[in-house]
Design goal:
The complex is a heterodimer. Chain A is α+β, with helices and mostly antiparallel strands. Chain A is built from five helices and twelve strands. Chain A has a five-stranded mixed sheet with strand order 2-8-7-4-5, with no helix packed on it. In chain A, a hairpin with a 2-residue loop joins strand 7 and strand 8. Chain A is globular and about 50 Å long. By secondary structure, chain B is mostly beta strands. Chain B folds into two domains: 128 residues, Rossmann fold (3-Layer(aba) Sandwich), CATH 3.40.50.10070; 265 residues, TolB, C-terminal domain (Neuraminidase, 6 Propeller). Chain B has five helices and 29 strands. A five-stranded mixed sheet of chain B has the order 2-1-3-4-5. Chain B starts with a helix and ends with a strand. The chains are: A alpha+beta, B mainly beta. Chains A and B meet through helix 4 and strand 11 of A and strand 10, strand 11, strand 17 and strand 21 of B.
Chain lengths: 248, 445
């Protein structure tokens, strides 16, 4: 008798649990339409390129702001970024950058173009059926990130560099410049040295994977060209990196 | 044992900072910097004008003269509220006893007169010992220039330096020196120059890229700096040299990879710098004409920020993280005999600047408990003095040629700006206000 009623309670409880769980699931999947629930606002995002026109080899700055976005991505070539900030870009040919802001309330995009004067316009990526080398490079080659005041290759950097090495093996004509970067907390002069050590560490790791040293140059930007400009660890961790640039 | 003593001494000097005046600090600085000796009480009344149009020029002249003398670290200025009613314009008008006695109690009086006409501006300057009125004048000179505000300023600096020269026993004044520094005022980091008091700020380079770490040549005719310049599609930091005489860059060789932080040898014939042309960032030395490149450090890690002993030219100090955090190392100028400069605490020690007499090092140190602060170390005794504290980041000290002043960058106002102070940490003075300004370097003359 007692065990029977216990079982009944257990069944009831599990039934309740299923209902609650299902309701929970439903709430999660059902995102935008109903106006009743306190819905998240649609993200907004704006992107600005300055200057909009540069000479080949020069640098433009992309600056963006967003609201209600948790995830921002700039393509081609920049990748994940913080909700607002700026980054230098050095496109080798005229490029339209698209920023995609995603948040609980949906997603939004904005674009900004940088036109490059005197760029070799033999290949227009938009008209070509196959992705250009530039695009492939941007899609496949990932940067290596570092701990504060360190130039040791971390586990995640080892993974990224292993993939980078695959790409470099597939495209033996590609030469790269490895740019070392640091966060803002160290001193300016020492950081130029530290950034160089990071670039060298990434280069040496690639050499250990069989990539010839002659295909890789290193250069340090110290803390002069941060990818992200907030004064917190989320940004600092983005700024401590060895960044790959396709050399021409 | 020595380590213990060093810690103890550092502790004593840190404590002394809390005293109303850092008396202990002054004692040991006496030999090195001239700070701490009894300061002469100096009065500097307004200069009577001999022509009516000279009034605004007199104001500029006297303001600048006063500021120069007050900031010299050599004299104690007597407040004008204690001055006798009449301002002397020439020695015959000076009533010595009125200045020597209470309430003025002056020891010396700097005075003179000023006239401006079609021929320009003329200032007759005098310096008298009012306790010894029969002695010859300590200084008597006529200063001439154009009847402009800029020249009134220039002549005041000259008069101030002459007075300081007399009162400090021949040590140079610094009123006519300059600062090279990095400013973002034009939109990108360029090399700028200003007078030692922050006046006449003007842009020197127009590279529209990133320029860093300016260093004056010993003859103050050139500035070596770190420049990011594109070459065959790759932009990398290189050593650039700017000539202040010809207002342009001088040709200098380009090296592979990253090159930064140039420093002149005291005879101006060589430049030490950081280079990763062969992999690791190491210190190299090259002739100022770009020849005879050779490497002087050989240790894995970052080796950078070299500075020569300006007195002997036989030693260098540099920053290395070969053993962990970046700290200072001393070595012979050829790279031999490397010695780590141990500190009584952990942390990150960078940006060394060697005092003109070769006895002291100024540097920035971020201790585990704090932010970057400026310290001075006596090299022989390893005694330390903390010059800044609890005021955001303070970095990149550079000594004035008088060995009594230090210029540095600080974020204490919320933006990065250039400040100077006496070498005991007193009289901090903000020199820049607009944009971000950093990496000051004091001209050697």
């Amino acid at each position: 008798m007692q065990s029977g009623s216990l079982r009944r309670v257990a069944v009831l409880l599990s039934f309740l649990a299923v209902i609650v769980f299902a309701a929970g699931c439903k709430k999660k999947t059902q995102v935008a339409p109903p106006a009743a629930a306190p819905t998240a606002s649609q993200p907004t995002v704006s992107l600005n390129a300055s200057p909009a026109s540069i000479k080949a080899g020069d640098t433009a700055t992309l600056a963006w702001t967003s609201t209600d976005a948790t995830d921002l991505d700039i393509e081609p070539g920049v990748g994940k970024v913080s909700p607002q900030g700026s980054t230098p870009v050095t496109p080798s040919q005229s490029t339209t950058y698209t920023i995609t802001a995603t948040g609980p309330g949906g997603s939004a995009t904005a674009t900004a173009s940088v036109s490059v004067e005197g760029a070799a316009t033999t290949e227009q990526p938009s008209t070509a059926a196959q992705p250009s080398l530039n695009e492939l490079f941007e899609q496949n080659v990932k940067d290596a990130f570092f701990d504060f005041n360190k130039s040791d290759i971390r586990g995640d950097a080892r993974e990224a560099l292993t993939k980078d090495a695959e790409f470099l093996r597939s495209y033996p004509q590609v030469k790269v410049t490895l740019e070392g970067h640091c966060d803002e907390r160290g001193s300016t002069e020492y950081n130029i040295g530290l950034g160089e050590r990071r670039a060298q560490a990434a280069k040496n790791y690639l050499i250990s994977l069989g990539i010839p040293a002659g295909r890789m140059d290193t250069v340090s930007w110290g803390k002069e060209r941060p990818f992200c400009s907030e004064h917190d660890e989320s940004c600092w961790s983005q700024n401590r990196r060895a960044h790959f640039v396709l050399a021409h | 044992m020595t380590r213990k003593i060093t810690i103890l001494l550092a502790f004593v000097f840190t404590i002394s900072l809390f005293a109303p005046r850092p008396a202990a600090a002054q004692d040991w600085f006496k030999t090195g910097t001239g700070l701490g000796v009894t300061k002469a009480r100096l009065a500097a009344p307004d200069l009577p004008i001999r022509t009516a149009t000279a009034q605004p020029l007199e104001k500029t002249f006297h303001d600048v003269l006063w500021a120069d003398l007050d900031y010299s670290g050599v004299v104690e200025m007597v407040s004008p509220s204690f001055y006798p009613k009449q301002n002397p314009g020439q020695p015959s008008e000076l009533h010595a006893a009125d200045w020597a006695n209470a309430p003025a109690n002056a020891y010396m009086v700097a005075y003179g007169n000023l006239s401006a006409d079609g021929n320009g501006l003329a200032v007759s300057g005098y310096l008298s010992d009012v306790h010894n009125p029969t002695a010859p004048l300590a200084l008597q000179k006529i200063y001439r220039g154009a009847a402009t505000d800029a020249d009134a300023r220039r002549l005041a600096h000259q008069f101030a330096d002459d007075i300081i020269g007399v009162l400090s026993g021949g040590l140079p004044g610094i009123a006519q020196t300059h600062m090279a520094y990095v400013s973002t005022k034009s939109g990108t980091k360029e090399i700028w120059e200003m007078d030692y008091d922050g006046a006449s700020q003007h842009q020197l380079t127009h590279l529209k890229s990133i320029s860093l770490t300016p260093r004056w040549s010993p003859d103050a005719t050139r500035i070596a700096f770190t420049c990011y310049v594109p070459f065959r599609g790759v932009t990398s930091p290189q050593i650039c040299i700017y000539s202040t005489a010809s207002d342009r860059l001088i040709a200098f060789p380009r090296f592979r990879s990253t090159n930064a932080s140039p420093a002149w040898s005291p005879d101006g014939s060589q430049i030490a710098f950081m280079s990763s042309q062969n992999g690791d960032p190491e210190i190299y030395v090259v002739g100022a004409d770009g020849t005879h490149l050779h490497r002087i450090t050989f240790a894995a890690g970052v080796n950078t920020s070299p500075a020569w002993n300006p007195k002997t030219g036989k030693q260098i100090v540099f920053v290395s993280d070969r053993a962990g955090d970046p700290v200072l190392y001393l070595a012979n100028a050829d790279g031999s005999n490397v010695q780590r400069l141990d500190m009584p605490d952990m942390g990150y020690v960078v940006d060394p600047s060697w005092s003109p007499n070769g006895q002291l090092l100024a540097f920035s140190w971020r201790r585990p408990t704090g932010n970057f602060d400026i310290y001075v170390m006596d090299i022989v005794s390893r005694q330390l003095l903390e010059l800044t504290r609890d005021q955001a980041r303070n970095e990149r000290p550079s000594w004035a040629p008088d060995g009594r002043h230090i210029v540095f960058e600080s974020t204490r106002t919320g933006t990065r700006q250039i400040w100077s102070m006496l070498a005991d940490g007193s009289q901090p003075r903000q020199l820049t206000y607009q944009g971000q300004n950093e990496s000051p370097n004091w001209s050697p003359k």
